[in-house]
UniProtKB/TrEMBL annotation:
The gene is argH. This is Argininosuccinate lyase. PROSITE patterns: FUMARATE_LYASES. Pathway: Amino-acid biosynthesis; L-arginine biosynthesis; L-arginine from L-ornithine and carbamoyl phosphate: step 3/3. GO terms for cellular component: cytosol. It comes from Candidatus Monoglobus merdigallinarum.
Length: 454
């Protein structure tokens, strides 16, 4: 097949080079964006009188037919045509001849690929946001169901203070909320149109870039043609946003894995979202959570790969930048695979409330509340902290807990203790008193859930 750019060459490209140079095996997924961009470009060329309006109309009509044929499986792309852009243009020319050759007037593959990539990633970013919204909805439902489900909160993976499962779940809601906000912010910088930048120095044709931008749903046009074709910040930024999404999924996965162990016993995963062992018949493995945790490293790798590709490239376009596609596509595909199955896994898990409550009562999780009790009775906090530290040491030595101490034992540590200490350090009281904004008290979390549901 003769190359569309082959005029200055006297010999055919080696077959190995064709294969090495081709990106059609992975960039073919951008066919819809490429056709949409070409149709808008052709319409603009006709409006501006750069090509005949009748030619523009024929190009647009033929491109629509090509898209229908692609989607019905009638078209097979070829390596000889290198990429999705040249494949579609080659098919266009084969159908309408010289008229099809006019489409590329005033543009380069450099600004064309930049356009297609921005449009494709914009669409995929919106898809990720939709999936995150579904996950957030699942979290809200679970949290609403477990406003009163007490559990231990941890620092350093050591029991710290009692909280509720609702409060714990809403921490992840906040993370995924920030993820959607980050993606929306990333989209703003992504949604600037590069078409019209040409290969690097724009064009002499009187293009109406703003018309094409509006037609394709962009918020504006790039202001420097060199940057327009060589910028991949939007790819790097999206890869970073996806990496943070996976960080949050991985953290949540780690807790699901821990909670489902016999040692914790806080949850039981549904059979449909677990797997077994080929040798140990009793096993029920949290493979969904483990795979989400493992695939996080894959997305991190995509980000690092992209950063490394871009780190030393001079202006403007370089073929190295073709390497951005596979990595960002892989990151997108991985995140899109993880979010829905993770959401269904947590939506179907069984929460063992009694086990969580036992956990909340152990490990001296009410020690801080004992100190607060003393502070409210006039003792400086540092002194109260020391008193309770001695109480904990005493309890450990005598294999007991603070709640089980007699009034006489309480008074041996401080004369400020009164009979109401027992009610003051119950799990319910410890949680219920923490009712300030951001606290775990049921009424506080309930208000937050209602706010977010709106």
């Amino acid at each position: 097949m003769a190359k569309l750019w082959g005029g200055r060459f006297s010999k055919a490209t080696d077959a190995l080079v064709d294969d090495f140079n081709s990106s059609i095996r992975f960039d073919s997924r951008m066919y819809a964006q490429d056709i949409a961009g070409s149709k808008a470009h052709a319409e603009m060329l006709g409006r501006q009188g750069i090509i005949k309006e009748a030619d523009a109309e024929l190009i647009v009509k033929t491109l629509s037919g090509i898209q229908s044929d692609i989607e019905s499986g009638k078209i097979e792309f070829t390596i000889d045509a290198e990429d999705i852009h040249m494949n579609i243009e080659t098919i266009l020319i084969s159908r309408i001849g010289d008229v099809g050759k006019r489409l590329h007037t005033g543009r380069s593959r450099n600004d064309q690929v930049a356009l297609d990539t921005r449009m494709y990633l914009r669409d995929e970013s919106d898809n990720i946001v939709s999936e995150l919204e579904e996950l957030k909805s699942v979290i809200l439902s679970l949290a609403e169901e477990h406003l009163e489900t007490a559990m231990p909160g941890y620092t350093h993976l050591q029991k710290a203070q009692p909280i509720t499962l609702a409060h714990h779940l809403m921490a992840y809601y906040e993370m995924f909320k920030r993820d959607t906000e980050r993606l929306a912010d990333c989209r703003k910088r992504m949604n600037i149109m590069p078409l019209g930048s040409g290969a690097l120095a724009a064009t002499t044709y009187p293009l109406d870039r703003e018309f094409v931008a509006e037609k394709l749903g962009f918020d504006g046009v790039t202001q420097n043609s060199l940057d327009g074709v060589s910028d991949r910040d939007f790819v790097l930024e999206l890869a970073f946003c996806l990496s943070v999404v996976m960080t949050h999924l991985s953290r949540f996965s780690e807790e699901i894995i821990l909670w489902s162990t016999g040692e914790f016993g806080f949850i039981v995963l549904d059979d449909a979202y677990s797997t077994g062992s080929s040798i140990m018949p009793q096993k029920k493995n949290p493979d969904v959570a483990e795979l989400a945790r493992g695939k996080t490293g894959r997305v991190y790798g995509d980000l690092m790969g992209l950063l490394t590709v871009m780190k030393s490239l001079p202006l403007a376009y370089n073929k190295d930048m073709q390497e951005d596609k596979e990595q960002i596509f892989d990151a997108l595909d991985t995140v899109k695979m993880c979010i829905p199955v993770f959401a269904k896994m947590i939506a179907t898990m069984t929460v063992k409330k009694d086990a969580m409550l036992r956990g909340a009562k152990g490990g001296f999780t009410n020690a801080t509340d004992v100190a607060d009790y003393l502070v409210n009775h006039g003792l400086p906090f540092r002194d109260a902290h020391s008193v309770v530290g001695h109480m904990v040491a005493y309890c450990i030595e005598h294999d007991t807990v603070i709640d089980a101490l007699s009034m006489e034992e309480f008074l041996s540590f401080s004369e400020l203790f009164e009979e109401d200490i027992y009610d003051a350090i119950s799990v319910d009281a410890c949680i219920g008193r923490r009712s300030i904004v951001g606290g775990p008290a049921a009424q506080t979390v309930k208000k937050l859930i209602e706010k977010y549901k709106k």
